[in-house]
């Protein structure tokens, strides 16, 4: 059992300009065996959160509990967590075997033959047994990454902490390692907190995603929930590639009026948004429909500005008014031929739109 709880965890730093709140009252329960990805833009507090769990950074306020025990003041070596860094942090003068054994030799009194057994088993699990007597300089990036993971595995930790472990790998290797890591985590069933700014990694690997912005937790939910039911404008814009399109509107009666188009809401939706007048309408690029006629409601004329072919689909940059800077994006199947300059009719289906309170940013539907 390894349930990890962050309870209003806060971290402030002091610099010349005053106090920086790096992590602001973050609360999350990470279940035994769960794979949680922490995502957010640069500087949002991801690494600081991970470092506090590892014990590498003091906690200013709040509690971190492992299986109900407060670990705030426990030194890193006693926490039974293993951290894997982006830089691998391997010792260049030691072999794979020595690198992997080092942590155990230093921090435990485990007999040498048991250490050796664990190291060899981890090398077999990671598919690097034949490299066991090589030094890091004689390994590829992906192999070094496996050694770094193996070094965490031999400690048989209750929690894996990973800080952008795949960031230095090329796209192909990254995709391979993503699958491997998932399989490994699944096989070992170890509670894992994984920091990344790569939302593909977060969407594909995690059980749940915790999205941070400015140190504040915006949403913690499954990848699909974050995608389909974002809590606020930040999550809606952060999750999804290409990003959701946003249009600022004003509600008048049952009509959302914007600079480029007017959107007619159903009675049910009007009831749901009642009381809010400044509303941001969001629609994902893949939810925009290309239609032939405009007899149905909420169909708008636009012009194709640029088309980016992506193989199985195209990304079309569209404009309501060619003379203005009002581009929005729609994705269309690869078979559909669109050309720059072409006039098209697009429909925003009501069941696909997201509505946010423009002032607070909170989702209202
Ligand atoms: P990145 O994706 O760029 O690695 P991050 O989300 O991991 O960013 P953190 O490294 O956790 O962000 O930093 C959060 C905030 O805390 C930033 O504003 C950063 O400048 C600040 N910060 C981090 N460490 C320190 C420190 N030792 N002293 C002062 N400020 C710090």
Automatic annotation (TrEMBL):
Q: How does it assemble?
A: The complex is composed of two ATP-binding proteins (XacJ and XacK), two transmembrane proteins (XacH and XacI) and a solute-binding protein (XacG).
What is the protein named? ABC-type D-xylose/L-arabinose transporter
Q: Which organism is it from?
A: Haloarcula rubripromontorii
Could you say which protein family the record assigns here? Belongs to the ABC transporter superfamily. Carbohydrate uptake transporter-1 (CUT1) (TC 3.A.1.1) family.
Record membrane topology: Peripheral membrane protein
Q: Mind listing the GO molecular function terms for this protein? A: ABC-type transporter activity; ATP binding; ATP hydrolysis activity
Q: Name one GO biological process term.
A: carbohydrate transport
Q: Which reaction does it catalyse?
A: D-xylose(out) + ATP + H2O = D-xylose(in) + ADP + phosphate + H(+); L-arabinose(out) + ATP + H2O = L-arabinose(in) + ADP + phosphate + H(+)
Compartments where found: Cell membrane
- Top-level class of the enzyme under EC nomenclature: translocase
Entry's InterPro entries? AAA+_ATPase, ABC_transporter-like_ATP-bd, ABC_transporter-like_CS, ABC_transpr_MalK-like, ABC_transpr_MalK/UgpC-like, Mo/tungstate-bd_C_term_dom, NA-bd_OB-fold, OB_MalK-like
Q: Matching NCBIfam families, A to Z?
A: PRK11650.1
- The superkingdom listed in its UniProt entry is Archaea
Q: Which residues form the ABC transporter domain?
A: 4-239
Answer whether the UniProt record assigns the keyword Membrane to this protein: yes
**Any Gene Ontology CC annotation:** ATP-binding cassette (ABC) transporter complex, substrate-binding subunit-containing
| Alphabetized UniProt keyword annotations | ATP-binding, Cell membrane, Membrane, Nucleotide-binding, Translocase, Transport
PANTHER family for this protein = MALTODEXTRIN IMPORT ATP-BINDING PROTEIN MSMX, TREHALOSE IMPORT ATP-BINDING PROTEIN SUGC
